[in-house]
Amino acid sequence: MKTRLLLLLLLLTALATPTQAQRRPMSDKARKAKIAAAAAARTKAERAARAEAAARAAAFLPVSDGPDATELLRIDGVLADATLRSDAETITHLLADEYVAVNSKGLVTGKADVLAAIANDAAQCDINKGFEYVVRVYGNTGLVIHNTSFRGQLDGTSVTGEYRVTRFFIKRNGKWLVAASQTTHVTPAPLVALNKGAAKRAFRDKKKNRSSYVADRH
Asked: What are the distances in angstroms from CA 167 to CA 66, 79, 125, 177?
């Protein structure tokens, strides 16, 4: 009997005593650290997913190497550097006259549009760093696909972020030229709310304020 009473008292005490988590709500510093850790984990997962996608692509497409593949990578790098410097002369020699591009907004532009944007200072760029390259050569044609960390402006609008670029090359008179390109904005996955308790409290407060407003109106 005494044992049962003792167990009952211990149970009631445990129920009446708030837990450590209830007594000490998460501090702003801890909450920020948790959000940062989740963001880092999300970035790592996204990079792993991209690497897996690149591996799948490599399994289905023939692997290209040799001097032509090396030249395509070199041209892609020179074009990126020329974009940083707004070097219209270099860009002119790298693009085919019939060059056509689809930008991240879905607009179609040509070589003349690219050079005009540089001449009018409508296109500005201070970061253009490529990574995760895929190169393919098919005789006198080839393509380069890669991601890029980009920071710049176009017609006063920010085009900063991560983008995936596909460039199509043609070999004309022994020289490789960029004939077309397509740019896609890589949208990061949304970060879900971590502090569910705070979200519930905010919802209750909003509902309470709405009820008070209705009462005041009447």
From this structure: 18, 11, 19, 10
How many other C-beta atoms are found inside a 10 Å radius of the C-beta of residue 137? 23
Distances in whole angstroms, Cα of residue 64 to Cα of each of 3, 119, 130, 135, 173: 78, 36, 19, 6, 21
**29 within some domain:** no
Structural domain including 104 reads 46-185
Using an 8 Å Cβ cutoff, are 169 and 143 in contact?
A: yes
Q: What is the pTM of this model?
A: 0.59
CA-to-CA distance for 176 and 68, rounded, in angstroms?
9
Confidence band of 53 (pLDDT split at 50, 70, 90): low
What's the structural domain count of the chain?
A: 1
Residue listed under structure tokens 């990061």: 188
Q: Which residues, listed in sequence order, are joined to residue 164 by a DSSP beta bridge?
A: 147, 184
Contact partners, residue 64, CB within 8 Å, separation at least 6: 135, 136, 137, 142
CATH number, domain at 151? 3.10.450.50
Q: Is position 7 within any domain?
A: no
Residue 112 — left, alpha, or beta (φ > 0 → left; ψ -120 to 50 → alpha)? alpha
Matching residue, tokens 């860009």: 91
119: nearest Cα among 151, 97, 91, 88 = 88
1 lies in a domain?
Answer: no
- Fill in the DSSP letter of residue 65: -
Average pLDDT on 84-93 reads: 92
Residue 66 lies in a domain: yes
